[in-house]
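Hi support team,

I submitted a single chain yesterday and got back a structure, but I'm not sure I'm reading the token output correctly. Could someone confirm the output below corresponds to the sequence I sent? I've pasted both exactly as they appear in my results page.

Thanks,
R.
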Amino acid sequence: MHPRIEDYALIGDEQTAALVGKDGSVDWLCLPRFDSAACFARLLGDEENGHWRIAPRDGPDRCARRAYRPGTLVLDTDWETDTGSVRVTDLMPQRDRAPDLVRVIEGLSGEVTVRSTLRLRFDYGSIMPWMRRTDGHRVAVAGPDSVWLRSEPEVRTWGEDFCTHSEFTVKKGEKVSFVLTWHPSHEPRPPQTDPLDALRASVEDWQAWSDRCRYDGPYKDIVLRSLITLKALTYAPTGGIVAAATTSLPEELGGVRNWDYRYCWLRDSTLTLGALLSAGYHEEAEAWRDWLLRAVAGDPADLQIMYGVAGERRLPEFELPWLTGFHGSAPVRIGNEAVKQLQLDVYGEVMDSLSLARSSGLSTKPHIWSLQCALMDFLRGAWRQPDEGLWEVRGGRRQFVHSKVMVWVAADRAVRALEDNPVLHGDLDGWRKMRDEVHREVCEKGFDAERNTFTQAYGSSELDASLLLIPRVGFLPPDDPRVIGTVDAIREELGHGGFLRRYSTDGTTVDGLPGDEGTFLVCSFWLADALHMTGRTKEARELFERLVGLANDVGLLSEEYDPAHDCHLGNFPQAFSHIGLVNTALALFGDEEAG
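Hi R., thanks for writing in. Yes, this is the structure output for that exact sequence:
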């Protein structure tokens, strides 16, 4: 049976990540970075595209149970067989230089024969490496990639069917560990990692990090799990946070809405910063802010909606025809053509993020305000243009209301910065005039008075879940009848199975794509926020509880959910979904008297 998206758990070392299925198979791993080519790509193809399964030889196809060790990204998977039980512990320890994947097998009861099947395929499952034995290792080499595999204690290993097999028996209390290490093929073998020392250190490091969490309200475990997931999706050398660990997991099974999310989006910046700061993670928030500053440096006209993990600007999109896609959902795409789009909302998100950073006491840098002034100078001449909008539609540019609202946010934050900081210099009168003009235009052209709701674009009858952010960013107060009307209309027209679509795909051409998609989880969290802000806290908490109930058995959320088939959709785990969960929990339970 083909695994479902929610069957996977995440492990990682804050530079890359792997997905481990309930069948004990690592089906996705890109080395050495999140956006590198995968050496295990079964997730988007089949076994021949690379995977590494460790499970009882004569046991069931799926584990009995699994869980992260509390406050960590260390995964325990338990198996039960007729002869005994065994645990496989998976982790990727913080790297010194080379990335390691560590798998520790421990006998829990009886006696269990365990089999390891390792099928390495570099370049997204397309290249079969040359394998050799050397100095107690199995070594795989192809082009620039080299992977070294060893076990402690050493167990019998043999090659068969173009993969590497191991088989051994463990009794209660016995342990066998595997370490898989990647490094450039032209370099000498990296230092060996002690697997049990790495396990102990990883547990201690993660638990120490989790102990810093400042949130102590209801649902603390799932909130902390979301924060750990955001930390795991962080590229530690730069502070950038990728949108997801995967590419091309479909928004519709069998469909073509398959995108590469292993990059850093500016759209997430304010919400990410707010979640980290509110939860007490100022160091991570400052690293994200600094990544943002480096990424957007340069001509404001060249501001992109996304960047690579180190701030790379060129992310060319192409397809991998040898991969059939998850559940046959082709094409599999690498890179993201949306990087070339004009999305005016990102200027508002950058301005809002830097405003939040300043008000939260993050360290200041002398060039931040000059950067903000340059952004405003560009935006003043560009804000009237149509754009592709928050959702990166491929159906042509429009006058998206959310984009204009975020233009207003940019002007508003610039004005407030000058009002609050007399030492700063800027065009206060000009920015106030721009702010008022944008506000007036949005209320005139983006509002349907007959239906009492803002619309997706000027002159459109369609709705958009991004309009739920209008009260959150301060464009209108929550008690404004237009806000309440918009919340009600969106819940009525975009609601599906108790959750929320981001916009309608029924017969519309806004995104230029065929097919459908699931309910969008972050939009459903935004609905909970909007219900809370408009005085309907009981309904907001009920929705939040339903959303939390969608998390898989180890607390992870993908991008979307399909109520009809009760399954996750889209890339996984999705940072935006977990950011939504954290921020909504903070809004609903950070102050029990609110609402």
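A quick pointer for reading it: The first helix runs from residue 122 to 125. Let us know if anything else looks off.

Best,
Support desk
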